[in-house]
Amino acid sequence: MAKVVLKLGDDVSTDIIYPGRFMATVLPTETPQYAFADIPDFNARLKKGEIPAGSVIVGGKNFGCGSSREQAASCLKGPELVIVARDFARIFLQNSINLGLNTIICPDIEADQGDELEISPDKIVNKTSGRTFTITPLPKARQAIVDAGGLIPYTRQRLIQGKK
Amino acid sequence: MGMTLVEKILANATGRTSVKKGDVVEPKVDLAMSHENGALVLNQFLEIYQGTGMEARVWDPSKIAIIFDHRVPAESSKTATNQKKVREFVSEQGISKFHDIRGDEGGICHQILPENGYVLPGYVVVGTDSHTTTHGALGALAFGIGATEMASVWTLGYMLNVEVPGTIKAVVNGKFPEYVLPKDLILYLIGKLSAEGANFKVIEFHGPAIENMSTSGRLTICNMSVEAGATSGIVPPDDETLRYLREVAGVQEQIKVFGPDPDAAYDQVIQIDVSQLDPQIACPHTVDNVKPVQEVAGKEIQQIVIGSCTNGRLDDIETAARIVEGKKIARGVRMLIFPASGRIFREAISKGYIYTLMESGAVVANSGCGPCLGVHQGALADNETALSTTNRNFKGRMGNPNAEVYLCSPAVAAASALAGVITDPRNGGKNG
Questions:
Q1: Quick check: is B432 in a domain?
Q2: Domain span holding position A70
C-alpha cells in the first residue's frame, strides 16, 4: 500500500519540480534537498525524512513539461518516490526511465492527498475511493532500459559487447 | 507510402532505406551538445566506464559541442567549479567545439551552433537542453535529452531506443503584417495545440510564410516547438538555408539537401494564415495561455527582457532599437537586453542598435541565458510582472514563484517598454 503525499494538476513543469536557481547542484546525491523547493511544506517534510520511500505523487497531464534538467528526475529518485500521472512530457519520462525513477502512466487516475493506493503492474486500486484505474505499459523499447536497471548499466553492457 | 522529413533523416542515420512512425531505431548522432550541465554528463559518463577496465574516451571529440551560457560569468563558486571541471575534461578529451566565456566566440548554445555551421540539413543533433529543437530550422532532426542519455551518446555515438515520432504538418500561408513576427506565429500555434498537443511528435513547417522567412525567424519557431510538447520542430531546407549556411555560417563543405516525400503520412495537418494574425502574448503561468496582445493591453510591467535562444538575434535587437529610437523607456521599467552571442553583440554595436537602446534607457548585458531561467541576472521581486521575449513563463521561472512572466515578440516588448504597460506595437506605442 502506498500513500499519496502530494496531489498536483496538469502541466507540472520542471521549474516547479526543481527550480532553475538550484541547477548548479547536479549530483543525484545532492539534488533531493531542492525537490519542490517552491512548495515549502512538502519540501520541508521531504528533508525531515517524514515521507517514506514508495510514497506517491499524483499529477495530471503532461507531468514534467519544460526543461531537460535531469535534476527534476534525480531529486525524486533519491527519496524513492513514485510518480503516477495521466501522462508525462517526453524528456522527463525518458530521464526517469534512465535513472530508474518509478513513473506510472495512468490516464484516468483520480486520487487525493492522503489516499491509499495499491499499485500492481497493470492497475492501481484506490483503496480510499474503492475505484480501479488501468496502467498504460511503457513502450517495449523503454522497458528494456528499466529491466537493465537504468541507462548507465544498459549502456555499459553495450560498451562491453562492442569491445568483444 | 512516402516518408516525412524526420523519417528520412532517421532512415539515413540508421543505414536503412525506410523507417516509419513507431519503429524503434538506434540512430548515429552527428552532433552532441551540452552547456554547463556537461558537468553532470561527465559524472554519468565516468560512471558508465566504472568497473569495465576501459579508459573513458568519448566516441568522437569532433562531434561534441560544449558551450557555457546558462550562468555566465559564473554566479557562484559551485558553478565556477563545474565550469572548471568541464574545461579540464574538454582539454583531456580533445573536444574541439568548445565555446568558453568570451566576447569573440561565446554566446548561447542555440545561437553558437548555427552561426558556426555546426548543424547541417539531415543531421541528427541531440542536446542536454530542451530548446535543442531550435536546430530543426536548418533541416536537422534536433531534440533535447537528459544528462545520462548524453553520457550514453558520448560513449556509443548513437542513441539507444529512439521511437520514430509522428509528424504534424503546419502549413503557414499569407504574409506577415507589420509588427507581427515569427514569435507571434509560434505563440499562436502553441495556444492552438496546447502545451502537450505535440507530445512525442515533430512539427514540420511548410507554406509560403515559412519559405519567405529568414533563418532567424525559423530558429525562433523551431525553438519554441518544444513548448507544445514537440520532440522537435523542423523546416525543410531550401535556398534560404543554403544562403545562411554559406554566407553567415561560412560552411565550405558539400551540403546535402532533401525534404519530405510528397505522399508522406502526417498525424495532423494545420493551416494558418498569418495575414490575419494579431501580435500574441502568452500569459502566466503556462506557455499555451496565449491571447492577442490587445486583450491584456494596459497591464503594468516592471521588467522587460529581450534576448535568449528564442529572440536574442540581430533582427530582434534591430526591431527593438527601431521602436525605442529617440524615445525614453518608461520610469519604473527595467529593460534588459541580452544579445544571443558575442558575434551578434558586436554586430549590434557596429550597427548602432546598442547605442540607441542604451540611450533610451535599456541595460545591455553580456550574451547568455540571463534571467530566462531565473538563475542569476534580472530576478523579479514579489508581485512584479515581467514581459519577456524568452520561451517559458512557468511559475518561478524567473527566480520567483510570487512573480509573473508574460511572453511576447521583440516588437511588443519594445513598445511596452516605452509605455510601461503591455502595448500593441501597431498602436504607435500608444496603449490600448
A1: no
A2: 2-136
